[in-house]
Amino acid sequence: MKRGGRRSVRAAVGLSAAILARAAVADAGADEAGLSLLAPSDRGLRSDLAWLVDRGVLELPLGTWPLPSSTLRAAWAGVDPARLDAADADALSRVRRAVLRSTDSARLTLQANSARHPLLDGGRSARGIAAGALSFYAGNADFGGQLSLAAVGDSLTPGGPQGSLDGSYVVARLGGAVVAAGAVDRWWGPGILTSPILSTAATPIAGVIVRRAEDSAPQTEWLHWIGRWGYELSAGRLAHYDPQGTRTIGLRFYTKPWPNVEIGLARSILWAGAGRPHDWVAFRDALFGRSNVDDPSQKNEDPSDEVAGVDLRISAADAWGGIWVGSVHLVGEDEAGGWPSKLFGTIGLQRKAVVHGQRLEWTFEATDTMPSHLFGLRSAEPPPAYQHSVYQQGYYQGRLPIGAAIGGGGDLYTMGLAWTRIDDPMQLRVEGRLFWGRMSWMGDQPINAAYGVTGTLRGLMLAVDGETATGIRWQVGLSVQHYPEGARPVAGLQAGVDIPITGR
Questions:
Q1: pLDDT band at 290 (very low <50, low <70, confident <90, very high)
Q2: What is the pLDDT of residues 133-192, one digit of tens each?
Q3: Contact of 211 with 232, CB cutoff 8 Å
């Protein structure tokens, strides 16, 4: 067994022991305030929360996931559902159910992705032809843990393992912070379908996350203008990556100076690994952006790989009762004058409204991962984003993008419409999207297993999801992708079911 495999086994045993030990002294089924982590791959939950925030029902930053359940409970603590209109009350009810569902004692999840189409929407599509997971949760108000035994068939990651602990975590509230360890999906930024710095396109990075427990505003008068604010610090280790043992550092700060404005600053760093410096000096130099040259003759001018940037989300009501949301997320891989340069990123525009008693959300989102290109506003043609001279497998894990779902060197334009039935016992949500883009258009990229073949991508996605009275969640959809990747069919079925085995 490889050394990395032994470490994974030891981590699995340790995580399992921690969760099962806590289960022996805590009855999760009796404690409705169990501490859990809410995943960004639940796009329905993200949509419901954004609806409530943009309508002024909740005050909550939206761009940093996973979210601790304690943060959501604090946000809705003073809200009286009886005083809300039907659409807002329905959205709040869906959020409450999602939080309660996250503390179910045991759940079985099954997914199918018959065409093996990679994620393009930040959702829950299987990262292979099929996937399944059996999850167990135990916890109380200050501590929680989930053990998830997951498996994937015909993985998009070449040579990837069939089994994993993806989705497993332990989380604890320590004073004003929430500390979590495990392998959970994460998301940074205001994007609806993707993030150019940290998205759900790749498998979760195993590591430790520390974030503020509640995103309240400073009480000091001269700092109160900052508004609700928070931070996230993380450290992790990449899997299925060369050099083996490559580590990550994540730094994010976010604030809401006004109720309708959210601003974020973030850095994501790859460092260390086999054959690379990994001592305190290397950590310090990576953290402070200093060059760390161990052999100038090899031209390793920057042995740490960094992506950093800024994001902005603004919402505003119109005269017809709708809400407009605009977002910009720009990141860079190089530095000039202390700021990221050679920018690329994602922009988005959304309108949401209640129409004839139904909730409708129109979305446009565009992503460009060709640095300094910026959707054709500039003609520069540098190497694609997410490449590096030292970390030659780039900003990927298992050859799937850590950032934007398309990977580096392409652009993608998406238009979509989501329809949510209000006060529906079946909890129906219907969504359709059309997309077009150019993938890896500076040349094939073997490091990108998602969209590393040069060519045009165009297609559509249709999906319907709901929930039964017994708590079974289901989703079925059609994915069509015209793309010159011979190993993938053009059309495929994407479906999933989430079954509570033992409820609360």
A1: low
A2: 999 999 999 999 999 999 999 999 988 778 999 999 999 999 889 999 999 999 999 999
A3: yes
Closest CA to 411 of 446, 431, 381, 432: 381
Q: How many other CB atoms sit within 10 Å of the CB of residue 488? A: 15
Closest CA to 459 of 487, 488, 430, 496: 488
Nearest to 483 by CA among 442, 446, 433, 440: 440
Residues in the chain: 504
Find how far residue 319's CA is from the centre of its chain: 33
Q: Identify the CATH number of the domain in which residue 495 sits.
A: 2.40.160.130
Q: How many Å apart are CA 345 and CA 330, to the nearest integer?
A: 5
Phi and psi torsions of 27, nearest 5°: -100, 95
Query: What is the rounded CA–CA span in Å between residue 18 and residue 24?
Result: 10
Q: Which two tokens stand for residue 283?
A: 């950590």
**Locus of tokens 């999207």:** 433
How many angstroms separate the CA atoms of 273 and 275, rounded? 6
Q: Are 129 and 116 in contact (CB under 8 A)?
A: yes
Structure tokens at 194: 């993707």
Integer angstrom CA distances of residue 342 from 287, 294, 378: 20, 26, 11
Q: What digits encode the pLDDT tens for the residues 421-479?
A: 998 889 999 999 999 999 998 899 999 999 999 999 999 999 999 999 889 999 999 99
CB atoms within 10 A of CB 352: 22
The candidate with the shortest Cα–Cα distance to 324, out of 362, 351, 347, is: 351
Six token digits for residue 7: 């470490």
As for how many domains the chain has, the answer is 1
- DSSP letters, 322-333, are -EEEEEEEEEES
Six token digits for residue 359: 């909730």
The tally of CA atoms less than 13 A away on the side-chain side of residue 284 is 3
253 neighbors 265 (Cβ within 8 angstroms): yes
Range of the domain at 78: 3-502
Token pair, residue 325, equals 């949301």
Please count the other Cβ atoms lying within 10 Å of the Cβ belonging to residue 301: 11
Tokens of 488: 């993938």
- The CA distances from residue 184 to 38, 41, 83, 132, in Å, are 9, 10, 35, 15
**Which residue, 446, 376, 379, 435, is CA-closest to 407?**
446
